[in-house]
Amino acid sequence: MSSTHDHDLHAWVRTAGRAPSAHNTQPWSVRVLDDRIEVAVVPDRVLAAGDPSFRDLLLSLGAWVECVAVAAAADGRGVTVEPTPHLDRLEDLPVRGPADPAAPVLVLRPHATAYATPFSPRDVDERRTDRGRLDPAPDLRADLPALPPWLVLLQVDDPAMRHLVRLGTAWTASRRAVAAELVRWLRLSPTHPRYARDGMTDRMLRLPPVVARVAAPLTRRPALHDAALTVAGWAGRAVEAVLRSRPLPPAPGPGEPLEGPQHLVLVARTPGVLGATEALDARLGLPPADVVEAGRALQRTWLHAGRAGLAVAPHSEVVDSPHAVAGLRRRLGLRRSQVALAVFSVGRSTAPVPRSPRLADRTG
Ligand SMILES: Cc1cc2nc3c(=O)[nH]c(=O)nc-3n(C[C@H](O)[C@H](O)[C@H](O)COP(=O)(O)O)c2cc1C
Predict the structure, then answer these.
(1) Of 130, 219, 346, 361, whose Cβ has the fewest other Cβ atoms within 10 Å?
(2) Which residue from 21, 181, 207 has its CB within 8 A of the most atoms of ligand 1, so it is best to mutate?
(3) Range 70-95 average pLDDT
(4) What burial letters (b/e) apply to 19-58, b meaning 16+ CB within 10 Å?
(5) What pLDDT score was predicted for residue 219?
(6) 20 lines ligand 1 (CB under 6 A)
(7) 304-357 pLDDT, tens per residue?
(8) What are the Basic and acidic residues biased-composition ranges (predicted)?
(9) Residue in 335, 359, 278, 355 with CA at minimum distance from that of residue 99
(10) Is 304 close to ligand 1, i.e. is its CB under 6 Å away?
């Protein structure tokens, strides 16, 4: 009988280093012990302004856990995932600073039953976000591995999605703290000291070299940075006012084929998953452990897209902006008990997709 060794756990953690996270913050701090992996949250890597409900943090942790499970499966193992009480108290995290190893939010323990997954560590390594133009592709949901029964992937039509993305982008630009936080995670020139470590590079964002050269100083020189945020704020508010005064484009008729790339919304249903008090306390209306579970399902969906030769482009701005999410809820006919957790587009890449940096890449 084979057993799990310390070096296996280290290898699983290395694989999971390629997990996606909002703004590529990689908010996890991992400790490998003899019989378990402990995961704590790094306060400096939490998007305090842009993610006040911790939705993206929890989804990112879930994606990370799924990647560990895929790596364990390749070694014929599984992992049990135990949320700790710290997961329910994320608002007690300090605003800045390193992770507290004494306050892990998740504990993963290996066991001998292989995790059943169609995916491999190679799929984890090759998955990428593509922010370029996506060509239409068949419905991703056709042969998707089953989601937990309280999660559903709904489709939104392309004209509505375009409107909602513009509304969400205008919201991001016009909220100074949110925009400043985004700028803090931009790495627009290879001379940026963290270019190869985290955040979003000019290449990942597919910025033309001229635009990246002009914009890079805006992210690093305080005077320019402040002026750029002020201008973005004015523009964002103006665009938001115009878009809010316009209705969503007419919905396609029943049976009418949807045009463009596919746009999917991961929606959680609250009844049945609510453990009464935690859910009421949680800002999202869902227990944090369930949002981690949803992050695992989201990562499986994205890995499935990768396997099918398709690329994914998340659009969190659509669920961040109260105006955009209200429009989305109306378009999808969501009930009060349903929470839209993630929005992303899926399609065929039209150009090679650059690889994003990771903290783990430096240490090999
Ligand atoms: C929960 C979550 C939300 C995300 N939201 C966005 C988004 O709104 N816009 C975007 O361009 N990318 C978004 N991303 C993608 C990340 O920026 C991306 O995963 C990260 O930069 C690493 O790049 P990679 O996916 O190519 O490895 C999101 C990822 C996660 C896990």
Answers:
(1) 361
(2) 21
(3) 97
(4) bbbbbbbbbbbbebeeebbbbbbbbebbbeebbebbbbbb
(5) 87
(6) yes
(7) 999 999 999 999 999 999 999 999 999 999 998 999 999 999 999 999 999 999
(8) 122-139
(9) 359
(10) no
